[in-house]
Amino acid sequence: MDLFLGIDVGSVSTNLVVIDPEGEMYLSPLYLRTQGQPIKAVQQGLSLLNERLTKKDRICGVGTTGSARALAGVLVGADLVKNEITSHAVAALHAVPGVQTVLEIGGQDSKIIIIKDGIVVDFAMNTVCAAGTGSFLDQQASRLNLSIEDFGDIALRATNPVRIAGRCTVFAESDMIHKQQMGYSLPDIVAGLCEALVRNYLNNIGKGLEIRPPVVFQGGVAANAGMREAFKKALQTEIIVPQHFDVMGAYGVALLARDHILEHGEKTQFRGFGVTNQQFQNSSFICQGCPNACEVIEIKQDESLLARWGDRCGRWTASKAETSA
Amino acid sequence: MRITYPHMGNLYIVVRALLVSLGLEVVLLPQTSRRTVELGVRYSPEFACFPFKLNLGNYLEAHEKGADTILMAGGVGPCRFGYYAQVQQQILSDLGVNMEMVVLEPPDVSFQEVKDKIRYLIGTLSWWQVIKAIRFAWCKARAIDEVEGRLLYLRPRVEDPLRLEKLYREALQEIDGAGDRRTVQGVVVDYQQKTGKLKKQQKKPLRIGLVGEIFTVLEPFANYEMEKRLGLLGVEVNRSIWLSAWINEHLFGGLLRVKYECAHDKELASPYLNSFVGGHGVETVGCTVGFARRDYDGVIQLAPLTCMPEIVAHSVFPALAKDYDIPLLTFYLDEHSGEAGIQTRLEAFLDLAAARSRKKEEQMSGSVFRN
Q1: To 10 degrees, what angle do helices B243-251 and B11-21 make?
Q2: Mean of the pLDDT values across residues A176-189?
């Protein structure tokens, strides 16, 4: 069957989604930990995928997204490299056609997307603060000796959520410790933390935006029942969590790659599953050309240069273009 | 006297032409770089605005090159720029850096004071020489705007933007080196011809307007090369502030006619913003309305973090966006801004603007058929 692949390489997780031409999920999506090694994560994902595909399956288009979208795009030969905001919006629209607000909280960033009549009209993304993102919740769960999977359900048992200062993660943490020392119950503290993070999110990310239902909540943190409940309480509306909430970025970019290929009638640039066995070297050096001292990043495959970036002036990016021409 | 002045985009070319024609010895700064930021940030108050820090870095680098006098602009009103010079001077003297600072306050505030300062700088030179020097510098300012304007127009249209960029850099260098007005004009004509020959692609680019605080808009280092980023993403950029228009408005009392004027747009700020809020707050709002009326696909506001006038302007954006149905995006920038975040938001913003523009076109063609 003709299939389309979406790869989302984020700070915490690397997700792969394969869809059929109708846009339906083919195979169950892959959710891997990036662990600071995006190249390895992509290779691992592709090899797992390769095992599951049959001989008749053919990848006809690939899209990449997430913070390592450019790197992943070079590695696999993507037809489309798209930012995660657009990818998430596309996936949300596909899953919940009338959606007007998308709340997305991932490993290290959080965003809100406002949609009107099927197109994105506004969005916001955290810029300076990672409060309320997956990494912070992870950290607090381990501080409380809880597994992140149990965290949400414990919050639901709260009878009287504690009020925790949520403007800054560092202060939230010290306030939480303080509340622990005071002797509040664990569920009340955990629920209080969720509420503080939701307040922080709505004040920082949602500032000045009109949040209208239907509201979709996606990203890894949407797995957390405590956070879902806190959003429901704060927004006074139903919170829809789509079935594949944790891989929506990859899903969205797979849909976009499909549209791109079908619209232009192009052949895919996909480099094939052989990528999993190839050796990639990534290295960086500091350019001495001017006082900017840019850190230039190089991606090589078996000693031949695939891509370079990171320079302000385009000197190195350009030299790549010349060598490949 | 070895004189220097802080960077703001290509302003150095204009000021150099002026000062050299006045017979002064100019110490030209190295381009603002990460080193400049490091120096500036190290000695500035943490919550000073970004331009302040870059200025200070500029001075320290100029000092290394042997400059002993700084020419700096002053200001009045609620914007903190008004006390930049004084605070910077204090920091320099605390550091034991011995530099004299000559502050030119806006001439529309105290003409006599400006006159005295200029007299101090030029010694016995005649006022006729001063007028000649201003005319020469003005000619360069217009040439720069011409060259920049064409760069912004062509960047999304040519097949090889790097080649265009190179021609642009060369033209700037030649304008900077030109010794008379005829040579300057020759460079512009030559640049127009060369860029005209570049291969173009047949694609209608999105049009985005840049508004905001003057330094952040004009200095590519401060705005993380916003114009270039946008251009390479296939966008035609226009901005609210151009050097020649700004000089005309503030130094010549708006007497001349220049190409990229937005003095009229300023009046469009009402009813959203009716009073002077300092800096370029009113211009930001007015020019945003101006871009919206000229059917731009979106407007991006650029401001240093904690910039009060721009925060005031930003606060009326929701109302404005609603009335004009135009996508607006704001970036507050300083040395901590993350490039990845800027790029991601920019790309998403352009997707949004493109979707809106497609939808508008469909509606237009739809209504034609219905009629």
Answers
A1: 50
A2: 89
Residues A294 and A273 in one domain: no
Domain total in chain A: 3
Domain with A124 in it? 97-241
Residues A227 and A266 in one domain: no
The answer to whether B36 faces chain A, any CB pair under 8 Å, is: yes
DSSP H stretches of helix in A107-224: 134-143, 148-156, 169-182, 186-204
- pLDDT, one tens digit per residue, over A298-312 is 888 877 888 887 777
Query: Kind of pairing, strands A239-240 and A215-218?
Result: parallel
Domain co-membership, A34 together with A159: no
- Long-range own/partner contacts, residues B243-252 (CB < 8 A, 24 or more apart): B243/B9, B243/B10, B243/B11, B243/B14, B243/B141, B243/B144, B243/B145, B243/B218, B244/B138, B244/B141, B244/B142, B244/B144, B244/B145, B245/B145, B246/B214, B247/B14, B247/B138, B247/B141, B250/B106, B250/B107, B250/B108, B251/B107
A168 touches chain B (CB under 8 A): no
Does residue B228 carry a pLDDT above 70? yes
pTM value is 0.88
Q: How far apart are CA A241 and CA A250, in angstroms?
A: 16
Residue A136 confidence class, pLDDT cut points 50, 70, 90: confident
Task: Kindly indicate whether the ipTM for this predicted assembly is greater than 0.90, answering yes or no.
Answer: no
How close, in Å, is residue B338 to chain A by CA atoms? 8
Could you report the per-residue pLDDT of B44-70, keeping only the tens digit for each?
Answer: 998 899 999 999 999 999 999 999 999
Q: Both A235 and A257 in a single domain?
A: no
Q: Are residues A58 and A120 in the same domain?
A: no
Same domain membership, residue A233 and residue A118: yes
Contacts of B165 in chain A (CB under 8 A): 314
Residue pLDDT, tens place only, A3-30: 999 999 988 889 999 999 998 888 889 8
* pLDDT exceeds cutoff 90 at A265: no
Interface test with B, best of A104, A256, A260, A312 (most B CBs within 10 A): A312
Distance between CA atoms of B31 and B54, rounded to whole angstroms? Answer: 11
Q: Which domains does chain B have, with CATH numbers?
A: 2-125 (3.40.50), 126-155+158-202 (no CATH), 204-370 (3.40.50.11900)
Tell me: do A78 and A109 sit in the same domain. Answer: no
